Every structure is written in C-alpha cells, then in structure tokens.
Amino acid sequence: MKYHNKNILLLNLVPLYAILLFTFGCASQSGENAADDGWVDLFNGKDLSGWKQVNGNAPYKVVDGAIVGTTITDSPNSFLATDKEYGDFILEFEVMLENEINSGVQFRSISDPAINNGRVHGYQFELDPSDRMWTGGIYDEARRGWLYPLSLNPGAGTAFKKGEWNSARIEAIGNQIRTWINGIPVASLVDSVTPEGIIALQVHSIGNEEDAGKEIKWRNIRIKTTEPAHKEGHNAFVVNLVPNTLTEQEKEQGWRLLWDGQSTEGWRGAHKERFPEQGWKIKNGELSVEESGGGESVNGGDIVTEEEFSAFDLQLLFRLTEGANSGIKYFVTEKENVQNASAIGLEYQLLDDEKHPDAKMGRNGNRTLASLYDLKTAEKNKRFLKPVGEWNHARLLVKPDNKVEHWLNGIKVLEYERGSEEFRQLVSISKYRDLENFGMAEKGHILLQDHGNAVSFRSIKIRELE
C-alpha cells in the first residue's frame, strides 16, 4: 500500500514538474526576448567568426572578450568587416582607445574589387581621442570627406573618455543617420548616397614608427535590424544633404525652406516688384544665375527675399563654375540708389579663389571665398573646401546681440560683431566708408548676387532667432 501511494505521488509530481518547467522556461524566454528585443550579436566574444579583413595588414585578434586591432608600419588603413551587408539598423558597441591614434567604425560602406581596387569607402563613425575631440562625427571614408564635423556640435566632444570603455550607438534608418556616445547625442545626418553596406572596424595607417603597436579595442557589438527606431532626445544640428527638403527634426528646430526648389515664390528682383524675366533659371531643383560675361547685374540682376530678417541662421548649398564670382548679401535695405550695380549689403563672398582676380584685390584676402567682402578675411582650411564644380555648404549665423559668424562646409571661418569698434574700423578703410551706417540696419532682405557668372543654389533654408 505504501508502494502504491508512492507511485501515485510520483505520477502526480511529474506533470506538476513539467508544468513548472514549462512555465519557468516560457517566462525565461519571454524575459530574454524582452531584453534583447530583436538584438543580434555581431561578435561572439571568442573568435572572429562572421568577420573578414578586407584592407590593410594590421592584425586583429580576440583578447579577453574583445576584438583588438594593432597599428603597424607600412600598411594602409586596415578594416575588419562583417561578411554581411546591412541597410536599416541600430548598431551598438563599446570601444576603448588608450592612445592618440585615430580610428573609426565603418557602416553602410562598400568594399568592391571592381571599385578602387576594393578600398573600403562610405560612412564612418569617427573615433578621435585627440584634442580635437570629434568622436561620433561622421566622415565619408575615401569619398567625400567630412560630412558632419563636431564643430557643429562641440558640446558633444567631451562625451568620449580616453582610456576607458565607451558606449557608442549608430542609428541608420532610411536616409537619416544619428550617432551617440555614452548616451550623448552627437551627429545628425540626412543623406541617401549609400543605403546599405558592410560594417567594419578600422585600424588607421600610421606615419611614425613610434606609433606602431598601439591598440584599439571593441566589444559587445550588436545590431538590431527589425523595426529599428530613433532614440528620443537627439536635437543636434542637422546636416541635410537631400536637396530642398526638411526633416521633422529640422522643422522642430525652427527651420523652414526659404526657396521651395521649384518656383520663384518668396523672391523678386532687387529694386524690382517681380522676379527677373531673364538671367535666372530654375531646373532640376536648382536656382541658377546664368553666365553673361562677368558684368555686375547687367543681365537678370540680383534677387532678394520678399521678407526681411534681423536675427537668423541661414544655410544653403552653392556650386561655382570656373572663375565665378557671386555673393550672399544680408541686411539689404534697397535704400541706396544703384545703377547697373549690385544692391548694397554685408556680403558672404562666393568666389573661385584660384581663377577670379578679385581674390587678389582688397586687403589681405578679404575678397576671397566666405570672407566678409572687402572687410574681413575668412580663415579657411583647404581640407574642408570642395572643388569648384562641386556643392559647398554656406552657413550665415546672425545672433540677436549682433554677433555674426560665417561658416563653410561645417567649419566656422569668420566672426565679428556689427557695430563694434573693430567693425567700424573695418568699414572706415573699405569701399563702403562713405555709406552712412553701413551694415547696421535693424533688418533687411537676403540677396543672391548676379555678378555675370554661372552659379547655382539649392537647399536654401532659414530659422529666425530671438
């Protein structure tokens, strides 16, 4: 009887144990899925399965659960790449640099033997332990150069910690790319050149033997490709390279298009009631002044905004032709009586510095590209200049306290204060010295200049400041 009862007890316990085991297993599996939420590890922590070296000779190995890349002499940039390509995703990883060696993580990048001998090119999440502190900026490796330098978001530069493990995040969703470092928003880029590609870990080439043997470490590399979504709280300056468009993020920041990309709405000829009937054309989303031999305002003439502005942030893309001269003027009031000449205003100079003679006129280069024309010279770095014939990005920031900044391709090249002693002295020795209160209007139109040379504009946008 006792034996029989024991069997009954065992039979009753078996299904109970199975139920508990099944319930615990489901709960455990559910918790794992909730924690992972579609994340997939790209690195197993043990070996380099799923990765392959595509450029360079710098060695990669696994040490204590991390991928370690080591610099060597006589090698170009080296890349350890995923054996798969990825389109829309969120990528997270940890990285440590214990030295001043530059590095990066490629994403949506290409390594094709048929293109430039297979050299890796495409978007790069910058790893910059130097005093420049541009970690998290976006560089276009072996292609267009800097797309998002951290000069556009300098406060994020201190987020990276040299000699410590840092948490990084890349969100590539549609044409919108955003980066984070240690929970701090860094770069926000809108671009559609490469919609998918490999992910790769870079060991940068070195020029000095004493830099050999330095290490870059990565660990906890994971990706989410199922329903990726942008993390909230990213409000950095947006670099939007898709012509004549605004993202929701830009709209939230107060930006609006100053030219719609297809009509003359909002613009008219300077000192005129209507838009010029000749000399300007709109085609393929570009607003272009036509070549007329280099004479100032002898064809269509300058165009101005119908609105007037006081404090604002203006940006646009411009493309010069060889030897071209033009300008972006601001605080244009049209009060001066000009005949066959450009309307009067402060000017962000647009010029082919190599081919146009105006570059050698004025004083100390104050008529060169991005300068405050005939007043103050822009301090440019050739690395951030696009060649004539390519699109360059101009930004003009006029603050409510009359402080003004000229930017070129994401780099501030000039600053001054309207009404300051420096400004008055500059005006006193310029071609504007006889104009009363030159550049001091409370508000004015924005002008695009017809200087007789072919120049194109697009993605003209503005936000007013208070």
Helix content: 10-25%
**Radius of gyration from the alpha-carbon trace, in angstroms:** 29 Å
Question: Roughly how many Å apart are the termini?
Answer: 92 Å
The portion of residues forming beta strands comes to 35-45%
Give me the count of strands: 29
Runs with pLDDT <50, length 5+? 1-35
Structural class computed from helices and strand pairing? mainly beta
Overall 3D shape: elongated
Instruction: Compute the number of helices.
Output: 3
- On the 0 to 100 scale, the average pLDDT is 92
Largest sheet: 9 strands, mixed
Q: Can you tag this structure with a few keywords?
A:
mainly beta; nine-stranded mixed sheet; eight-stranded antiparallel sheet; 29 strands; 36% strand; elongated
Please explain how this structure is put together.
The chain is mainly β and 466 residues long. The chain is 10% helix and 36% strand. It contains three helices and 29 strands. Strand 19 (280-283) and strand 20 form a beta hairpin. The N and C termini lie far apart (92 Å). Residues 1-35 have low confidence and may be disordered.
